[in-house]
Write a structure and sequence with these properties.
Layout: E1 7-16, E2 19-20, H1 22-31, E3 36-43, E4 46-54, H2 68-77, H3 84-99, E5 111-116, H4 122-135, H5 141-157, H6 160-171, E6 177-180, H7 186-199, E7 205-212, H8 216-224, E8 249-257, H9 258-263, E9 270-279, H10 293-305, E10 314-316, H11 323-337, E11 343-345, H12 348-351, H13 358-372, E12 374-375, E13 391-392, E14 397-398, E15 403-409, E16 414-421
Parallel strand pairs: 5-6, 5-7, 10-11, 10-15, 11-13
Antiparallel strand pairs: 1-2, 1-8, 1-9, 3-4, 7-8, 9-16, 12-14, 15-16
């Protein structure tokens, strides 16, 4: 049976094109420094693909002073092919632990772990296969054996338990752990899992970390679906929206039992007070517009949190920038919140779409807004969709925030809504 204790966020570790860590990220958000770059992929003299991507800048894992012996073990196990995703997630985890003022070596008996990711090492596997096919023209037995050994090693790393293992090993985590993969809603599902872990007495603190550093193969997938924005500008809820732009990044949050946090005088960003979830079980890339399961998820979150729609001060939308998804999301918001004109913000124009890590990075940004009583304007959206009747934030807002809502309508119909409250 769940206990009734309160769950709070005591540390955040965001890494994105806005910056690395809480302070850099906040400065980047205030300046609108989105880190958008035009990426070119070549094979020989052939230009394979060119696309815009929100890039992490000035990242060096050595800056985070992680255990060199453990990192060397991981590097040896992976035969030098350590994915960028893993490195960034390790850094985000260290940032969150440091931000929470925890020494993970002293609290290992109370610390659990939940990891969220969409496709760890899958793109590395695709790249290795493609490189071999392109560069190795002669398929003799020796080359085929080398390909087999390399592909098997990388394919093994695509199993989610390996990502969980590597992160847990670096930080010496021995308690209950789990990996979550529910598309772009993974971060919100992971937070609910972490909350349940604390309420069920499995741990008093849980690290939740999610991230993705997508490359050319994921771009090609979206491009073939007709969903990638060629000019690099995500335009949520706009008449001109027709696609997304990816972004590198990761975020980690520390969820902690409120009593435990208060005993050590921890800084609290906000209280996790409840979530709602729905699964459409319909199609992969488009929502079911005939029945709005996102609306059901939001209503469930409000019920579970014992919060009235009128008391929500800010909604952080998914805002992916495609016509169907944006209209679907706008409809859910309108049906529940239009009467109270609740402001709606979107962060993807700042950081791109981080896929499996997107929801958690956006929660980290939302915690900063809640802490600072500030809402940045939505970038790029100047020509709004008609008949939406939602209050999009087009100018920065400086006003008191108390209750905020993060929502997501992900691929494969995973809808999620999570509510946080400031503790005064």
């Amino acid at each position: 049976m769940r206990k009734k204790q309160r769950i709070v966020v005591t540390g955040i570790g965001p890494i994105s094109s806005l910056g690395i860590g809480r302070s850099e990220t906040w400065r980047g958000l205030l300046k609108g420094d989105v880190g958008l770059e035009l990426v070119t992929n070549k094979y020989g003299n052939y230009e394979f693909a060119k696309f815009y991507l929100h890039k992490i800048r000035n990242f060096n894992l050595n800056d985070f002073k992680l255990d060199a012996n453990v990192l060397n073990y991981i590097n040896a196990w992976k035969q030098g092919n350590v994915s960028y995703d893993l490195l960034v997630m390790l850094a985000a985890t260290k940032l969150a632990i440091h931000d929470a003022k925890l020494d993970y070596r002293k609290v290992q008996d109370s610390l659990a772990l939940v990891v969220a990711h969409e496709n760890i090492c899958l793109e590395d596997l695709l790249k290795e296969t493609f490189d071999f096919v392109y560069y190795d023209k002669a398929f003799d037995n020796m080359r085929l054996k080398r390909l087999y050994n390399k592909i098997v090693r990388t394919a093994y790393e695509t199993q989610t338990f390996m990502l969980l293992f590597h992160i847990a090993r670096v930080f010496g985590i021995h308690k209950y752990s789990l990996c979550v993969n529910n598309a772009c809603a993974s971060g919100l599902y992971a937070l609910e899992v972490a909350s349940d872990m604390i309420k069920l007495g499995k741990a008093s603190r849980v690290i939740v970390v999610a991230g993705d550093c997508p490359n050319v193969f994921k771009y090609l997938w979206f491009k073939n679906l007709g969903m990638y924005k060629d000019d690099g500008k995500i335009e949520p809820f706009s008449k001109n929206s027709y696609g997304l732009v990816m972004g590198e990044g990761a975020a980690a949050l520390i969820l902690e039992d409120y009593t435990v946090a208060m005993k050590r005088h921890a800084r609290i960003y906000g209280e996790y007070i409840g979530s709602g979830f729905r699964l459409e079980s319909w199609k992969v890339t488009v929502p079911n517009i005939s029945e709005n399961y996102l609306q059901y998820a939001i209503e469930e979150a409000l019920t579970n949190s014992k919060i009235k729609a009128a008391n929500v001060d800010l909604i952080c939308a998914h805002g992916v920038g495609t016509q169907l998804s944006d209209k679907y999301e706008a409809t859910a918001i309108k049906e529940i919140f239009a009467k109270w004109n609740v402001p709606v913000v979107c962060f993807k124009p700042y950081i791109g779409h981080n896929l499996g890590g997107s929801s958690l990075i956006e929660v980290a940004l939302l915690m900063l807004c809640l802490q600072n009583d500030f809402v940045p304007p939505i970038l790029n959206t100047h020509n709004e969709m008609g008949r939406m009747d939602i209050n999009l934030v087009t100018q920065r807002i400086n006003s008191k925030l108390s209750i905020v809502l993060k929502i997501c309508c992900a691929f494969a119909g995973y809808s999620a809504a999570t509510i946080f409250r400031k503790i005064e």
